[in-house]
Amino acid sequence: MFQIDENVLLFLNGHLGNNDSNAFIRCSNFAYRDMCRTITYAADYNENHAASSKEKVVIAQKKRDLRDEITKLIEAKVKNWINNTNLTKKQFNKDHESLCIAIIEKYKGTTNQNEPDNSLYFGQAQKWVNMTLKNLYVYSKSNNTSLSFDNIIKYLHVPIDNVILDIASGTKRCYIDPPETTYGVAKPEKAWSKWSYSDYKKYQENLEASIKNDCPIIWELKHWSTVED
Predict the structure, then answer these.
(1) Among 146, 125, 126, 107, which Cα is nearest to 24's?
(2) Quick one: angle between helices 197-210 and 89-106, nearest 10?
(3) Mean pLDDT score of the chain, rounded to an integer?
(4) What phi and psi, each to the nearest 5 degrees, are found at residue 219?
(5) More confident residue, 69 or 115
(6) Please, which residues bridge with residue 41 across strands?
(7) Which pLDDT does position 140 carry in this prediction?
(8) What confidence score (pLDDT) does residue 49 get?
């Protein structure tokens, strides 16, 4: 079984708590907070366009309601995955794509990003899904919980952000890597938050190939937390 230092897990779990009843909510909410800074919202979903304090409250609630809908979608899919002892990587990847597309569908008409239907980009949806899965894995390994990722850990994708892009391209290095370590995955010109599915798929495949036999999400946990300034 893949291993990661217990102290790293405890550090990463510091903001996730230890209560199974709200694990999915907390893990998804923190992932959303990490991703939502990249969203350019349309006026109806942007508190800065509100005419009054009351209207700001209404807009904020609309965004929370939408966020909570997505959390339920992710929770249902994750429970399906962890209970499926016959899950394959091919099926996981197919389900992962469908989940991201479902999130994009939910966000139609909420943004002003020049994306079709004024929705999210695939790059934004993947960050939400992948960070939630990462958070849930850390939570499951740091608490006495019924939540087990043992049968899907090897399939989890790396959440793509600027830190990972820098490590994989060699712009930054991690102190756990020998000096001669190179991953050789070029940093795309387009920001990760604006990636299409094809952009994401190509990069994720190149990254997995570059880290060879290591489990992608374990590699991410070790490297994201040890990157040098």
Answers:
(1) 146
(2) 140
(3) 89
(4) -55, -45
(5) 69
(6) 111
(7) 83
(8) 87
pTM: 0.91
Helices (H), 113-196: 122-142, 162-169
- Of residues 46 and 212, more confidence is placed in 46
Count of CB atoms situated within 10 Å of the CB of 62: 13
- 153 contact partners, CB below 8 Å, separation of at least 6: 1, 2, 137, 215, 217, 218
Q: Which residues neighbour 121 within 8 Å (Cβ) at sequence distance 6 or greater?
A: 104, 113, 115, 193, 194, 195, 196
Tokens of 229: 């300034």
Q: Say which DSSP state 111 is in.
A: B
Give the DSSP H/E element, type plus range, for residue 65: helix 53-82
Q: Do 228 and 172 contact (CB within 8 A), yes or no?
A: yes
3-state secondary structure of 194: helix
Q: Answer with the residue of higher pLDDT: 192 or 229.
A: 192
Q: Band of the pLDDT at 208, cuts 50, 70, 90?
A: very high
pLDDT value, residue 190: 95
Count of H helices and E strands in the chain?
8, 0
**CA distance linking residue 26 with residue 12, whole number of Å:** 13
The whole-angstrom separation of Cα 110 and Cα 106 is 9
Could you give the CA distance from residue 171 to residue 158 in angstroms, rounded to a whole number? 18
